[in-house]
Each structure stands twice: as structure tokens, then as C-alpha cells.
Specification:
Blueprint: H1 14-34, E1 41-46, E2 49-54
Amino acid sequence: MAEIKVERKRRSVLPWVLGILALAVIAFVVFRVFGGDGGPGNVVAGGDSTVVVDTARP
């Protein structure tokens, strides 16, 4: 009988890279939309001090 050589194909890395990139973009969007803003105030940095502006008051 004749011998049949079977060579394994080398898989591409491109689908893995694209998948990881897509997950990173999705995570970024989720954290931007639902991300923690630190509470009711906004942090404003200026000069040598940091000021927290309370935006929750009417």
C-alpha cells in the first residue's frame, strides 16, 4: 500500500489577535458607558491642589 503523508496546517494568529482586540474595545466601551465616575462629584485638578466639585446638590 502507498503511504499518505498528512501535514498539519499551521493556524493563523490573526483570528486570536482580532478577537482580543475586539474584547478590548468592548471592555473600553462598557467601562466608558457604565464606568465608575467616582460618585456624585467631579474631580478637577488645577495647580498644586485637587478640588472635588459636588454636582449632586440642586
